Amino acid sequence: MLIIRPFIFRQFPEIKIGFASKIGPEVNSPYYLNLSYSVGDEKFIVDRNRKFFFEELGLSVNQIGFQKQVHEDLIREVDSSGYCGESDAMITTSKNLGLAISSADCPAIFIYDPVKKILAAVHSGWRGTEKKILQKTITKLNDEYNSNSTDLVCYIGPSISVINYEVGQDVAEKFDDQFVIKNNNKYFLDVARANYKMLIDEGVKKVNIQKSCLCSFEYEELLHSYRRDGQKSGRAIGVIAMRDKV
């Protein structure tokens, strides 16, 4: 199974992190290596795919916290695995507990504070980005967990690129012009860049940020994309966990 593993966390042997691709054993068209129960795929196939993915990272399904993503700015503190309720961001200080983000175009963002030993995982589509869920997550880390933004290490996972993400004028007007390209009366939104700028504005060091260059829309053989495939799109999962022993 091909798993995308960000290099920025290699300096932390206690961290397990990976973002699933469509490539793996026994993939089934049209969903391919789908990790979501909500797209019409057979449950036993999703169960199998999740088992493949998590075990490849040295985790089990019973160690993962899942949220129902609602495209809002809800942040949930998590200390146990399984279904954690509705939210789009999770924070934990628990060891051996993975935080999972589902994605098929939206940026999945993973944060580690190596000083305070805290993890966060954020789903930030255009609605969450407009509501500044990433900024609010960092504020919560700083205010309630005594984190320092300069210590945070962050990864922005694969997502749809600006040239492939056409939006309506009503959506474009919600964002600063620096994140919008207008071409022939069409509007294109750079969601990943907006989140990157949010990290910088919150004091995260550039050297501590890795932003994936992989476009979910363009890399058809590698990544799921709802914008490209519609109802037949599967979903990827990205997960981050902190081991108690190295």
Structure description:
- The protein is built from six helices and 15 strands.
- It is α/β, with parallel strands linked by helices.
- It has a single domain (3-160, 208-242), classed as 4-Layer Sandwich (CNF1/YfiH-like putative cysteine hydrolases).
- A six-stranded mixed beta sheet has the order 1-2-15-7-3-5, with no helix packed on it. Strands 4-6-9-8-10-14 form a six-stranded mixed beta sheet, covered by helices on one side.
- The longest helix is centred in the first third of the chain and has 14 residues, at 43-56.
- It is globular.
Question: Any idea of the CATH topology?
Answer: CNF1/YfiH-like putative cysteine hydrolases
Category by helix and strand content: alpha/beta
Ends apart, CA distance between termini? 24 Å
Strand content: 25-35%
Instruction: Identify the CATH class.
Output: Alpha Beta
What CATH architecture do you see? 4-Layer Sandwich
Tags for this entry?
six-stranded mixed beta sheet, alpha/beta
What's the SSE blueprint?
Elements: E1 3-4, E2 15-20, H1 43-56, E3 64-68, E4 75-77, E5 82-86, E6 89-92, E7 98-103, E8 108-113, E9 118-123, H2 126-130, H3 133-145, E10 153-156, E11 166-167, H4 169-172, E12 180-183, E13 186-189, H5 191-201, E14 209-211, H6 226-229, E15 236-242
Parallel strand pairs: 3-5, 3-7, 4-6, 10-14
Antiparallel strand pairs: 1-2, 2-15, 6-9, 7-15, 8-9, 8-10, 11-13, 12-13
